[in-house]
Fold these 3 entries.
Entry 1:
Amino acid sequence: MKARFLSIVLVGMMVLACVTCQQQAGISEQDQAAIRKMCQEAAKMAIGPNADWGAYVNYLYTEDAKVLIPGIPILEGKEAIKAAYSSGGTFQDLTFNTVSIEGRGS
């Protein structure tokens, strides 16, 4: 009876240790604030008749970025993305509504 109880306790402790070791911290408040600020800055670049699409794309995308826009082929790379955005007109108002920001790991 005593051996069985010890076995159950030992298994429970091993499971708890495994679960605890696998938990990873989420995104910090500081990182979430930085992401929200980045979205606000990007929105400013895209508003009005003098929208700076080059700065907008350079700010948000990497060289190997791919963008899916309905009705056109996949845009691959910064130059293709800039060209598509430049030919698409302007925004009078643009805001990003961040619902939640989640992440795990380092």
Entry 2:
Amino acid sequence: MGPPAERLTLADGDSVWFYPRNPSGLHTYAVRFSPEGVVREVDQRLTVQNVRKLAAGSTTAKEVREILGPPWRISRLERQQREVWHYRMDNGFQIEHNLFVQFSADGVVREVLLLRDPKYDQGTPGWN
């Protein structure tokens, strides 16, 4: 898989290496290692089940990073004073979606939006 895009050390001493495939791929793989370097698990983090773990008003940016891994793009909403992390994923039924996680200045999730990729709306009556 090559070098990871990001490495995190967890509170229990384990480390997680992230291998994102965004924007063209819809997965972020995480490899969890024990402090001794033994692989404990390998899983795909960009899932609907993991998105459901994000709670507006309580989940922190650090927790989002541990759950989903690094975003493929970060932008700002200046008027709202929010940072937005962008992820690409499927909805569990092979339909591409864009996930937007918005954070306030204190690093707490304020809004989570999982929106179907607009390419699926082309050709819909009223599209133009």
Entry 3:
Amino acid sequence: MGQLYDGSWRKTPCIEAHGYRNKQGYCVKRYNGKRWFSHRLAWYLEFGPIPDGVLVCHKCDNPSCINTGHLFLGSPKDNTADRDYKGRHKCGHQKGEENSSSKLTEDVVRLIRERVNNGESKSSVARSAGISCGHVCRIVSRENWAHVP
């Protein structure tokens, strides 16, 4: 992994793909009747087929970048190690609403705590919020969303 962090890729700018982007910022394109993430398509067009189970990862951490000099092939374990090395792991940097997987907002979290503290059942609150009862328990105990006052 050492060659990933030598910074040589920084000598060229990101090349941004245009078009539809999903919630995580990855562009999606159609090519030969198949849907592709743009960075995977860029790799395929320049270097050929991508083996099954192999990811096309970004050195630049820019999901819409299609500069193949900024991309590398890796396993899911390699991608996780890259993420952790760069300090992008979910636990430390994408709290609450910043986490793209979050269904809730800070206002809803406050309301959940308020409703449970006022005696409403956790299962009733969970149903109305569209989350599990366990999630409500973790919110109320501040195991989740601890940063929300």
